[in-house]
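Subgroup meeting minutes
Present: P.N., E.W., G.H.
Scribe: E.W.

1. P.N. recapped why we're keeping a running log of single-chain structure predictions: easier to compare across weeks, and new members can see raw inputs and outputs side by side.
2. G.H. added today's entry (209 aa).
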Amino acid sequence: MTDKEIVNLIVSGNEEAMLYLLYDRYESDLKFYAWRYYGSLAYLEDLINDLYIQLKGKKGDWQPLKSFQWRCKFRTWFCSVASHLFLEKKDKLIDLGSNTNSKDGNSGNCPLPEPEPEPVNEKLVMLMEAINRLENDDYRFILVKELEGYDHKEIAEMLVAKRKKENKVSFYRGKIVVPDAHYVDMTKAKAIREVKTIVEQIKKEWYAN
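Output recorded in log:
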């Protein structure tokens, strides 16, 4: 399904379609912004929940989504909204994480603080940025899932499930491609070559001055 078809489902009342956008189609983008601003995925679930609430709107009628005019790519707009929200919530979330005092001042009974964000790993942030810029959806999916610790067989199974959910079929030389561990391995090699090129572009952008 296209982004527009999914958004139409959401505004018509299908909240599962919104969960699909957040936890499947654009999950890698959201993880990238979490890493970029927090240096950790510790707050990702809270951030996604805040994004869900913002997109649903104050009246719960998905007005922010309805207002999108489709004059640019939906992914560009969606990522811009997420990026601004994640940055806006940073101080609040980190303050919550560092609050170790209970309301009655009894430090012996106070709850454990939220985990502090880990120091920013610049190389990882750069890698996530490069992966985020990949045009090929399989490239992005495979590299992100490998970073999460899945092996090639597991990633292949996830790809099969993902394509069934999206009702997508890929062809090569007139034959349907069914992802397996070998496909993941070959696709990963192509993705890495492309990522290396993008990383060099990012370095020039970041260190131009």
